[in-house]
Specification:
This protein is mainly alpha-helical and 71 residues long. The protein has two helices and no strands.
């Protein structure tokens, strides 16, 4: 898995935007950054879940193939 995925990009950009908002006193920018960061975290969780389901489905079918009698 790549270190900088699209979701990591959202999280990094969000953190930068949040920090910029804090430094400039711009509450709107800070909130925008926090929201983008949370969005990135949510995307990470969905991606991890999809990977887990995909792995389990593949394992299931691999096992089914192993259980078939060989001719």
């Amino acid at each position: 898995k790549e270190f900088f995925t699209m979701t990591n990009k959202d999280r990094i950009e969000g953190k930068v935007t949040e920090t910029k908002g804090k430094l400039t006193g711009d509450d709107s920018e800070e909130l925008k950054g926090k929201t983008q960061n949370k969005y990135g975290k949510a995307k990470d969780k969905v991606e991890d879940f999809a990977d887990d389901v995909s792995r389990k489905v593949n394992d299931f079918f691999d096992k089914k193939d192993d259980d078939k009698p060989r001719h």
